[in-house]
């Protein structure tokens, strides 16, 4: 049994010329349980002030700062649909956790993980997909580790102005999202207070999100949902100001 | 036993006495028969009365003679001893037809077995009192001297037996898969996969668990050369904690006479981690304490507690 498994692994490793260490890390990365949610900005405070407060709260809890992170998202329209179909959106996202990869999500459709030079391909495809300039959203901030939790506290910016706050919490020891949701929820409560998000829809739809290569996509889907919410808020705020 | 032999020697007297009883019964019957029949039909009343009276006297004398005979024999037979070890049931041995009703020999056998049983039960209970389930409790005293005597016999169990015990335990717990390896000679190394929660490597010597290490379900259990990695600890604090507790459990579940029971108890305990991330602490009701879920499982009740909540 084990010999067979080893055999397959060795063959794969040789065929792909993948160093073992790398292979192992890749394996681990894919299988964490992760939840992304938006943190409301405190009343009478700016985004930056709220983020600073959250930093302090995390550090009080005993979380250790471990570098920084970023996630960004560019939006493309389909063009040249001769048959009069409504134009669809394509999102191309990057994540500092996988700096050599790129995730492409079709609105309500399929998604794919690609190499970083997918961006170059998009430039070549500009007769079909047009970059919606000024729609670039990104979240940047610090990474914290607390026991087996990984917390990424980011400021969401659109057109280089801060619009909201994102919190990504990863529980690295567990591979089944449904199993540890209560645990993650309690952890988020410990530094965010009672306004904890509901179970992310990607969790609910597949209880056994195990070893499915879509796990990294799940995180990106959650960021995309969050960016969508932030964008909508801005539209509403803009309307009320007018 | 002496009484039984004695009784056997008097068997002749017994049979004579029984004959005497039969004779007495028939003579008594004869008395009442003649009384019932009344006077016989003779020519004169005088002759009739005489004949009846003489017959009655003869019959009574016969009864008297038989009674005397029985009394004489009864002194020969003697009283059955009351100090018989089986009391009145000892009289069963007097039954002459042994082949048809071997009650007495069966009774003796049963008696012997129950004696033996009591003796061994006594020994076992004194042993068990010394060697309770805790290894730490019998570090000193007489039991410590006894242990080396016991261990060597259980250390040389045939591998086939170990395989059988392990596969039987594996069948008991459907959510647990147990793979058995023998990387170095006869000692077995078990790879236990519990649901989608954890993997435990259990190093055995014969049926004794020597060492255990617990890692996450998605962590590698093989080292870079493709062998089972029994040394490096988990990258996650949860599983490092669980490893510590599992080592404590190994020290807790100890029963040198029955190593298979120990392995089964340990596996039952390990199985309670199936809901490691889903069970709140039974004391504080929370999921997290210092960033860790309840990693302790009570050895008896298998309830989940945080390490700090378990006292
Ligand atoms: Zn507790």
TrEMBL record, chain A:
Annotated GO CC locations: mediator complex
Transmembrane segments: none
Listed InterPro entries: Mediator_Med20
One example GO MF annotation: transcription coactivator activity
UniProt keyword list: Activator, Nucleus, Transcription, Transcription regulation
Cellular localization per UniProt: Nucleus
Gene Ontology biological-process entries: regulation of transcription by RNA polymerase II
Pfam family for this entry, one: Med20
Family in the record: Belongs to the Mediator complex subunit 20 family.
Alphabetized PANTHER family for the sequence: MEDIATOR OF RNA POLYMERASE II TRANSCRIPTION SUBUNIT 20, UBIQUITIN SPECIFIC PROTEASE HOMOLOG 49
Task performed by this protein: Component of the Mediator complex, a coactivator involved in the regulated transcription of nearly all RNA polymerase II-dependent genes. Mediator functions as a bridge to convey information from gene-specific regulatory proteins to the basal RNA polymerase II transcription machinery. Mediator is recruited to promoters by direct interactions with regulatory proteins and serves as a scaffold for the assembly of a functional preinitiation complex with RNA polymerase II and the general transcription factors.
Subunit structure: Component of the Mediator complex.
Full protein name: Mediator of RNA polymerase II transcription subunit 20
TrEMBL record, chain B:
Keyword vocabulary terms for this entry: Nucleus, Transcription, Transcription regulation
GO biological process, one term: regulation of transcription by RNA polymerase II
Any Pfam family hit: Med27
GO CC aspect terms: mediator complex
Localization (cell): Nucleus
Main location: nucleus
GO molecular function terms listed in the Swiss-Prot or TrEMBL record: transcription coactivator activity
InterPro entries reported for this sequence: Mediator_Med27 (IPR021627)
Keyword flag Signal: no
Origin superkingdom: Eukaryota
Keyword set includes Ion transport: no
Family named by the database record: Belongs to the Mediator complex subunit 27 family.
Protein name: Mediator complex subunit 27
Species for this entry: Denticeps clupeoides
């Amino acid at each position: 049994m084990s010999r067979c498994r080893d055999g397959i692994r060795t063959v794969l490793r040789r065929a792909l010329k993948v160093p073992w260490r790398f292979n192992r890390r890749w394996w681990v990365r894919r299988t964490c349980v992760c939840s992304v949610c938006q943190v409301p900005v405190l009343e009478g405070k700016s985004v930056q002030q709220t983020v600073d407060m959250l930093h302090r709260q995390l550090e009080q809890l005993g979380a250790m700062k471990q570098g920084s992170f970023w996630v960004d998202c560019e939006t493309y329209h389909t063009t040249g649909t001769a048959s009069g179909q409504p134009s669809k959106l394509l999102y191309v996202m990057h994540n500092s956790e996988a700096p050599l990869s790129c995730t492409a999500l079709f609105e309500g459709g399929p998604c794919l993980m690609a190499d970083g030079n997918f961006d170059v391909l998009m430039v070549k495809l500009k007769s079909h997909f047009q970059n919606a300039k000024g729609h670039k959203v990104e979240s940047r901030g610090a990474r914290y580790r607390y026991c087996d939790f990984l917390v990424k506290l980011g400021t969401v910016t659109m057109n280089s102005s801060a619009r909201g706050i994102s919190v990504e919490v990863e529980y690295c020891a567990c591979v089944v999202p449904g199993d540890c949701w209560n645990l993650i929820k309690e952890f988020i409560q410990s530094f965010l207070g009672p306004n904890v998000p509901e179970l992310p829809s990607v969790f609910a739809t597949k209880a056994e999100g195990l070893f499915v290569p879509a796990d990294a996509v799940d995180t990106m889907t959650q960021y995309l949902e969050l960016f969508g919410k932030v964008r909508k808020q801005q539209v509403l705020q803009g309307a009320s100001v007018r | 036993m002496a009484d039984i032999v004695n009784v056997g020697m008097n068997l002749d007297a017994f049979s004579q006495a029984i004959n005497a009883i039969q004779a007495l019964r028939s003579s008594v019957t004869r008395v009442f028969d003649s009384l019932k029949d009344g006077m016989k039909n003779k020519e004169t009343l005088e002759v009739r009365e005489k004949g009846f009276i003489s017959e009655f006297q003869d019959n009574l004398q016969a009864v008297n003679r038989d009674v005397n005979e029985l009394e004489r024999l009864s002194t020969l037979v003697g009283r059955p001893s009351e100090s018989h070890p089986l009391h009145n049931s000892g009289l069963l041995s007097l039954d002459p037809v042994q082949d048809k009703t071997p009650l007495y020999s069966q009774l003796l056998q049963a008696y012997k077995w129950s004696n033996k049983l009591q003796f061994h039960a006594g020994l076992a209970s004194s042993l068990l009192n010394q060697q309770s389930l805790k290894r730490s409790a019998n570090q000193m005293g007489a039991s410590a001297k006894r242990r080396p005597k016991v261990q060597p016999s259980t250390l040389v169990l045939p591998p086939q037996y170990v395989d059988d015990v392990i596969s039987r335990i594996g069948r008991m717990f459907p959510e647990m898969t147990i793979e058995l390896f023998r990387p170095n000679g006869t000692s077995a190394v078990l790879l236990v996969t519990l649901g989608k929660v954890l993997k435990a490597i259990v190093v055995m010597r014969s049926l004794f668990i020597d060492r255990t290490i617990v890692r996450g379900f998605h962590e590698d259990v093989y080292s870079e050369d493709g062998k089972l990695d029994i040394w490096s600890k988990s990258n996650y604090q949860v599983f490092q904690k669980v490893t510590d507790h599992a080592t404590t459990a190994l020290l807790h579940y100890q029963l040198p006479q029955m190593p298979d029971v120990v392995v089964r108890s340990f596996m039952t305990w390990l199985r309670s981690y199936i809901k490691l991330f889903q069970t709140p602490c039974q004391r504080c009701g929370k999921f997290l304490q210092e960033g860790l879920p309840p990693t302790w499982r009570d050895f008896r009740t298998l309830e989940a507690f945080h390490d700090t909540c378990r006292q």
